[in-house]
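Regression test case RT-17, inverse folding.

Input:
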């Protein structure tokens, strides 16, 4: 008996819908509280190819909601462990592994290889970045989000309803409006519910089943099971809020953190970097200018950085900088949660008035 028999016999589904799933591909961004249940149900339903992109490591605090992982997985790469466990369950499943964070440098090339994208990310920066990339590539995006006891689910850039996340929320929240990720808390069942609904939406879109949430947002409250749907209206003027081309997208800055980043000045950074157990890292791409001179640092572009390399592994203090401070802050927030090291981001980046480059020019 095929594991898909109970789906195929469903009225309105059948063999044709099953074949559509088998020939389809889904990219899941984030193997966390939303991504884990979504991955399990997409794999179980028979989606032919699944991509998993996540540069994070499993930590003990993840285990109440990230149900693909156990205690023995702590410290290991989420994308690799998730893929290994899914393949152990379903040997015919093709899984593409991207054990890295989504950035403006890798997003387009990754997303364009898939039919649909499921957003299981946990921060506003990635959410807006993913939305903009999918809009440029005209890829359907199934987005889920949670906060404490409440969840949201929406389907964007799908079918006749070509709305996107910025039509509902034109601007990212200000820094002082973003809750601290560690203090807001979550019951593991909530991302399980929302992530499962995300998987259901993906399955319906790929198979052509049901009316779906295209162009709508669903609000759900775990405490009382209340839920309601709202149409997302297309906004006429968003021209200055979103990149117009892939080239512009790759230069766009997206703020990704939860106020847990230790941002420091150039003066303090250079002082710390002189210690023997410290490392100063330039996260910018090779072609970005101006160059920093007169100081020892490593060039490790964010698009190719290996957090397990010897230089990072042996350092106690890791100091990061980029062009404006956004990318270094984003990456610092990811490293801080699992590394056990002192992670710093230089405020304002190389373009800061305090940077050695600008001091030399005005000296």
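Golden output:
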């Amino acid at each position: 008996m095929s594991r898909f028999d109970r789906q195929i016999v469903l009225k309105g589904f059948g063999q044709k819908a099953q074949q559509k799933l088998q020939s389809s591909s889904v990219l899941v961004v984030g193997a966390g509280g939303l991504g884990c249940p979504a991955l399990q149900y997409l794999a179980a339903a028979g989606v032919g190819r699944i991509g998993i992109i996540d540069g994070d490591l499993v930590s003990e605090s993840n285990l109440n909601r990230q149900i693909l992982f156990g205690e023995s997985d702590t410290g290991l790469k989420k994308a690799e462990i998730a893929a290994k466990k899914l393949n152990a369950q379903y040997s015919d499943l093709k899984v593409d592994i991207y054990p890295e964070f989504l950035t403006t440098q890798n997003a387009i090339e990754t997303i364009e290889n898939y039919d649909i994208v499921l957003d299981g990310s946990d921060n506003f920066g990635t959410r807006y970045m993913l939305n903009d990339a999918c809009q440029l590539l005209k890829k359907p995006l199934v987005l889920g989000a949670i906060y404490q006891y409440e969840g949201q689910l929406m389907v964007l850039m799908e079918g006749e309803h070509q709305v996107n996340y910025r039509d509902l929320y034109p601007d990212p929240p200000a820094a002082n409006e973003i809750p601290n990720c560690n203090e807001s808390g979550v019951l593991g069942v909530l991302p399980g519910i929302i992530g499962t609904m995300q998987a259901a939406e993906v399955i319906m879109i790929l198979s052509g089943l049901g009316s779906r949430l295209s162009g709508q947002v669903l609000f759900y409250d775990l405490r009382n099971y209340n839920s309601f749907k709202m149409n997302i209206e297309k906004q006429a003027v968003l021209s200055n809020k979103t990149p117009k081309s892939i080239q512009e997208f790759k230069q766009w800055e997206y703020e990704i953190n939860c106020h847990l980043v230790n941002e420091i000045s150039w003066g303090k950074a250079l002082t710390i970097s002189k210690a023997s157990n410290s490392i100063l890292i330039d996260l910018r791409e090779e072609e970005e200018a101006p160059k920093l001179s007169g100081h020892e640092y490593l060039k490790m572009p964010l698009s190719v950085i290996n957090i397990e390399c010897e230089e990072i592994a042996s350092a106690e203090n890791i100091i990061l900088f980029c062009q404006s401070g956004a990318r270094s802050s984003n990456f610092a927030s990811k490293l801080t949660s699992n590394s056990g090291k002192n992670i710093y981001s230089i405020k304002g980046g190389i373009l800061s008035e305090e940077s050695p480059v600008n001091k030399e020019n005005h000296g």
